[in-house]
Amino acid sequence: TADRGQQLAGIQGLVLDISGVLYDSGGEAGGLPIPGSIDAVKKIKASGLRLRFCTNETQATRDKFVEKLQRLGFDIAVNEVTAPATAACRILKERNLRPHLLVHDDLVPEFDQIDKANPNCVVIGDAADNFSYQNLNEAFRVLIGLEKPILISLGSGRYYKETDGLKLDVGAYMKTLEYACDIQAEVVGKPAKTFFQSALAEMGVEPQQAIMIGDDIVNDVGGAQQCGMKALLVRTGKYRPCDEQHPQVKADGYVDNLAEAVDVILKQLHK
Amino acid sequence: TADRGQQLAGIQGLVLDISGVLYDSGGEAGGLPIPGSIDAVKKIKASGLRLRFCTNETQATRDKFVEKLQRLGFDIAVNEVTAPATAACRILKERNLRPHLLVHDDLVPEFDQIDKANPNCVVIGDAADNFSYQNLNEAFRVLIGLEKPILISLGSGRYYKETDGLKLDVGAYMKTLEYACDIQAEVVGKPAKTFFQSALAEMGVEPQQAIMIGDDIVNDVGGAQQCGMKALLVRTGKYRPCDEQHPQVKADGYVDNLAEAVDVILKQLHK
Fold first, then answer.
1. Deepest of A208, A209, B11, B192, by most Cβ within 10 A of its Cβ?
2. B179 chain-A contacts, CB cut-off 8 A
3. Are strands B23-25 and B31-33 parallel, antiparallel or unpaired?
4. Is B133 on the interface with A (CB under 8 A)?
5. Do B206 and B179 reside in the same domain of the chain?
6. Distance separating alpha carbons of residues A59 and A106, to the nearest angstrom
7. Average pLDDT score over residue span A5-29
């Protein structure tokens, strides 16, 4: 339609959520591609549009996460993915912050290029067994020793499920340090504005030139719109019909899946 | 004065804070008696008034804490002290709650008489090194598995100081479980109404028949008044002159120390 054509004027890049948009997680292979999504990614890349993947995953390094998606058939590279650790590194560099890390051992390599001497902030991630009393106290002492304590949290999840039961997620321990220091953490990850801004900066695209495509009406659609982007909701993944009547958030469009979203966008752009 | 005499009509029991009222903590002996306080306790006991000690201490068992006070010269017995663990046990019994304990090993004996099979609540204390990821997850799973999760926290402190540095206190970990389960903990200890009620029940005295004497305008004086008791503020311990102009809380009287408080009370009662 004419409306859609106007909406898409000046679009230069797409930002894709991964889980629930590219694939559904679980099972022996670690997940199943959502029909049409593998081809949709190829079409975006062929179109000349810039592309960025934007995920809240923090249980694995980007490397391992991307390896899984490649095995499932996706044309995706590590340096195309914005994950909380990546975004945190960008923030740390921009603000000359030297983190004390309270994260999973597997995530530490993500911070290889970051100066960690004489820390002036704390970065907390899903540290799992590294959430010992001693490690929490160490992070706490770094914070309470700072004139203006800065706590950066890689997500704000409450808990998640593993094969051996429910586990406390990073958000629960973020609250430990928030309360002890009487501060508010800066949460990195969707729906934080800085997280989307980080993805856009990696693409070299302005918010009004980008479209977010996700299955989460609040964290994907609402978050992207807050940042000045347009956003489409797909009817896959965690989507539920009531999301289309969400009291606060209205998507710029509702599509059955990523394949339809890409077809609509490319058709309008090539008019 | 006539006013004071009327205020004290029907008084049958006194509730004393310990730290900052009986003694100041610290130093090699673990503390120093506040001048006149040892005698003041003796006078109360000789007067026939009922007496209860009410503390927020949770770093030691009542036994060890009371041993220290006895060494300092106080006539005090373990069964005269209301501490958070004692109060929690009373609550557990009253409500048929069977706790999963996340507390310091030294505190476990306080719960010897409590049924802990098939837990239907969690009691969290200053567990120190017992605050491992595994132990937190265990407590979390008990809570999240309950239809109506009940979390009882022995205090809500943020942190405290030990010789080897600052340590996270129970309140910080209370927040971990509160956030993970989206619940509010029931905090035992001053200024909680249930805590004072527990002390009163141990004495067999009604709120309007009791006077609280403390050095904390909010937790001692305000808490006791909320519970229907009268309350005096002593000018010892953590007292600061600005406490007498507190915007929310007005004590029923201000006295220089416990000795003066006891003299005033006994003089009026014997009129």
1. B192
2. 158, 171-172, 175
3. antiparallel
4. yes
5. no
6. 9
7. 83
- Cα distance between residue B172 and residue B181, in whole Å: 15
Q: Which are the contacts of B72, defined by CB distance < 8 A and separation ≥ 6?
A: B23, B29, B30, B31, B32, B33, B38
Total number of domains in chain B:
2
Q: What is the CATH number of the domain that holds A231?
A: 3.40.50.1000
B204 and B183 share one domain: no
Cis upstream peptide for B191 (omega within 30°): yes
Assigned domain for A66 exists: no
A143: chain B residues, CB-CB within 8 Å: none
Any residues with CB less than 8 A from the CB of B99 and at least 6 apart, and which? B88, B92, B111, B114, B116, B119, B121, B122, B123, B152
- Tell me whether B183 touches chain A (CB under 8 Å): no
Dump pLDDT digits (tens) for B12-45: 999 999 988 999 876 677 788 999 999 999 999 9
């008990």: which residue's tokens?
B142
B231 has pLDDT over 90: yes
Beta carbons of A54 and A199 less than 8 angstroms apart: yes
From the list B132, B159, B169, which residue is nearest A132 (CB)?
B132
Integer Cα distance of A258 and A40 in angstroms: 7
How far is the C-alpha of B173 from the C-alpha of B124, rounded, in Å? 8
Q: Which residue is listed with tokens 């990546």?
A: A86
Q: Identify whether residues B91 and B175 lie together within a single domain.
A: yes
Which of A4-8, A50-54, B23-27, B93-97 is predicted with the least confidence, judged by mean pLDDT? A4-8
Query: Among the three residues A188, A209, A235, which one is the final residue of a domain in this structure?
Result: A188
CB atoms within 10 A of CB B84: 29
Go through B94-128 and write b for each residue having 16 or more CB atoms within 10 A of its CB, e for each that does not. Answer: eeebebbbbbbeebeebbeeeeeeebbbbbbbbbb
Among A151, A168, A188, where does a domain finish? A188
Q: Are residues A206 and A257 in the same domain?
A: yes
